[in-house]
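Q: Hi! First time asking for a complex rather than a single chain. Here are the components, and I think there are two in total. Is that enough to go on?
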Amino acid sequence: MAGPLRTAEPSAPPPAPGGRRGGLSGYLLLLPGGVWLALFFVVPTATLVATSLYDPSGSLQLGYRMTGHVQNYADSLQDYAPQLVRSFVYAGTATLACVVLGFPLAYAIAFKAGRWKNLMLVAVIAPFFTSFLVRTLSWQYILGDNEALVSFLRAVRVLGEDGHLLATPFAVVTGLTYNFLPFMVLPLYASLEKIDHRFLEAAADLYSSPFTAFRTVTLPLAMPGLVAGTLLTFIPSAGDYINSELLGNPQTRMVGNEIQDLFAAGDYPTASALSVTLMAAIVLLVFVYVRRSGTEELV
Amino acid sequence: MSTATATARRTGRGSGRGAGRGPGRWLADHLVLVLGLLVLVYMTVPVLVVMLMSFNDPASRNSYSFDGFTLANWTDVCGPYQLCESLVTSLQIGLLATLGATLLGTLMAFAMVRHRFRGRSAANLLIFLPMATPEVVMGSSLLALFVNVGVAGFLGFWTILVAHVLFCLSFVVVTVKARLAGLDPRLEQAAMDLYANEWQTFWRISFPLVFPGILGAALLSFSLSFDDFIITNLNAGQEVTFPMFVWGAAQRGIPPQINVVGTIMFLVAMSVVLVGELGSRRRAGR
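A: Yes, that's all I need. Here is the structure of the assembled complex.
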């Protein structure tokens, strides 16, 4: 999963043997996939922006008129700002939780697992082997009011007498964290695994404490994996509505829930405006984040 | 060499900071491992719950609890209305999307790694962007397109297929590219030097060497397609895929059979991985 971000940087092409690999055959190979991406990714994105500017009084049956109705954005923000903010808060919290949980796991696999390394890696991707929705639904059971976890937490007074976990923001963030944690662990592992142990030995030889060695050697070298991992968990979490719908309550609705429902209800201009806003906000956040983390060459 | 440095480090630290760090260091080492294993438990428990619930005999439609043991779900997987129909739909879409995306993506990967041309970085960006787009945005863009070109009434199997090829495509390019980039171009040059033409070089040298990457990309595509809900749900019309069946069922009371399907999927995927691992070990052993 580290692949998408790391290999996206233009790798220098190997020397073209015999001059046979000119531009033309390259374009021919690129053509079918490129047309697909242009027709079904670039054109739709432009269409989405256009649709967000349609006159909202139209409908699917009567047809829409293009009126450059920028007001759609103001309206959708006015109605759905809380959901938008909530999406970013939940996604941010889940991403942070993924870092906190994913780092020890990736570190353990890279440095401490020994011959169990492959088994642990398979265990990391194992959740992918069953359906996303089915395994998200299983959290309804784990966090359920009558099950062991809630009973235990009530017994030790972490939860009140009638406290519960399911249908709370905690459940939504737990589900998001669970669902996207492998996307954090795998790139982190890929970065950590490549670290030359001699760097750490050199640090120790120069009287650095293990903590200093970790902070000044391991962490900077793990940064590419950390940045890739945060993007791969944050972006899908911010757009997700499955966890919020299955594990949350009406007060935990995220922007994805609203976009889906607006489309289902046929309010295309508002839904499109909200969708464009989500994408713009994500692009902006990612841009600032990648800038600040100093790993621009990643994207 | 590593023993020597390790000893040097130990004595260095021992003299510099005093004794008693040994057990602390041991605990620190194993603390990370223990924490890592706890996180793995967190990642594994839901799958175990799915397996457990496949034997559940729920007391009511809305029961989330394990109420009793039964084998009935396993003997009557197709019992719930539309469950198996949706599975067949998902399999068909998964296979066709895998075929399409793997073909288009492999060609693109070859172009990106083996050919020089203008506009490489634009092509790279075009391949990267779909992976960085949230599903709900990608799904709604496609829906906006379909509605604007007037096929809103024809949403279904084919529009789902178009969407699935789209979001699998970038992952195929990236996977195959990674494999190709690790391949020594001199192998192909050697074949050409020995008077193989381009066609022979491709089929006898490049393709067999890249094949594991293509296979991996195909498996990834299939699992992405089979599992997708958000994009599919926006572009499906009246068609019902397996994830959409689960979604619908979740609103009405969940039939325990979906856990049987989840368990079977898990076991099948696990066998594929194990067979692949054994195969590569045997090849490495030879």
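A: Chain B touches chain A through 114 residues (CB under 8 Å). Let me know if you'd like any chain examined more closely.
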